[in-house]
Design a protein that fits this description.
Elements lengths: L4 E6 L7 H15 L3 E6 L22 H12 L2 E7 L7 H10 L6 E6 L5 E3 L4 E9 L3 H6 L4 H12 L3 E10 L8 H14 L3
Parallel strand pairs: 1-2, 1-3, 3-6, 6-7
Antiparallel strand pairs: 4-5
Length: 197
């Protein structure tokens, strides 16, 4: 087995959540399998999620917590984001983390472009996994919403900055899972974590 450096971000803003349990299950299994794991809980981070200045010239200074998130991203070889879907998108605080921390010069380079004309990614050489919890059934999510949130976090955020490929695992019916289902999800996340996948 090749030991990996894994950064796990529990993107639920509450101190206790099923999303957090899934993230913890992944992280614990990855550690037990011999991987080097750093786990960050969004609810522990104190920062202003509003970018504020609205431009890249006069950037708002990063709080220490956001600087640490960036350092963990740069350190990692595999990035895992566990998040609920709220109103078809990311929780506001998680979106604020991405808005504030993934800045030009650290996450992408607007002065250099790819063959497609996009800013060059700077967080390359990493793979990713999204653990997505929602109430929306998978088929409905695909047909009616065209996987909009998956496209956002997978392609427009993580892969945009160079983390690729990014695989997505969905867990549906998260608000009121049937008896035993939540534990099955945690075990499923643990199996993925043990493989560092």
């Amino acid at each position: 087995m090749i030991r990996k450096r894994i950064f796990v971000l529990n993107g639920h803003p509450a101190a206790e959540s099923l999303t957090g349990s899934v993230a913890q299950g992944y992280a614990q299994a990855a550690r037990e399998a011999g991987h080097d794991v750093r786990l960050t809980n969004l609810h522990d981070l104190a920062f202003d999620p509003d970018y504020g200045f609205g431009g890249y010239v006069n950037q708002k200074p990063l709080e220490p917590e956001l600087e640490q998130v960036l350092q963990d991203l740069e350190w990692s070889e595999h990035v895992v984001v566990a998040t609920p879907m709220w109103w078809g998108g990311l929780p506001a605080k998680l979106k604020g983390l991405f808005d504030r921390a993934l800045l030009p010069g650290r996450a992408f380079d607007t002065r250099t472009t790819t063959k497609l004309g996009l800013p060059a990614p700077l967080l390359t050489g990493k793979t990713g996994r999204v653990l997505l919890l929602s109430d929306t059934p998978g088929w409905f999510f695909r047909v009616m919403y065209r996987n909009a949130m998956v496209v956002q976090i997978q392609q427009q955020i993580l892969e945009f900055v160079g983390i690729k490929p990014v695989k997505v695992t969905k867990f549906a019916g998260a608000s009121h899972p049937k008896d035993g289902v939540a534990q099955k999800w945690i075990k499923r996340a643990a199996r993925i974590g043990a493989r560092a996948a």
